[in-house]
Design goal:
Length: 211
Amino acid sequence: MRESTKKRDSGKPEGERRNRKDLPHKERLLRQGTSQFYASGFSGTTVDALLHATGVPKGSFYHHFGSKEAFGRAVLERYCHFQMDLLASWAARPGLGTVEKLTGYFDAMADGFIASGFQRACLVGKFSTEVAATSETFRHHLDEDLRNWHSALSDILTTGQAEGDVRVDRSPNELADALLALIQGAFVVALSTRNAASLRSVCATIPVIIT
């Protein structure tokens, strides 16, 4: 049962699925943008390359997004919605303790990353290392995205403390800080090592942190 659940949850977010010519222009651009940002980064992705890959007219791109930076923020927002939905789906599962919910969530992220050939880790982390230092606008949006992620983790941990399966000598916010840093760091390291076993071992650290 767990295996089939993991396979279902590790599906790619909408923005990573294969581009289709019968989709609306905006949808085509968002999907292709996600793929190209993972493959080439923000700086290495050009508007012309996006238009060539999607067959979308330049006027349509600027009608929907206005600029490459605004487009990048739209792709990032889409990715963050996917992450929050995935985390919420694990948080809502009946019969699971807090450790199982959080390790299941991390495993689902790892499944997608490994299935991509260690190419598609966390888009928030990728943009943070590439553009946060040079774009104050992007840095502000990334900060907001990470705060939302932190808040969602903190809510799960608060519930876990109330249910008695999360340690109470640290606040939920402190524990969420540690978990978010662990998640981001694990995928950054795995981008270089491509070591699936090492990535999976991170799950063993989650209960050490929160119980």
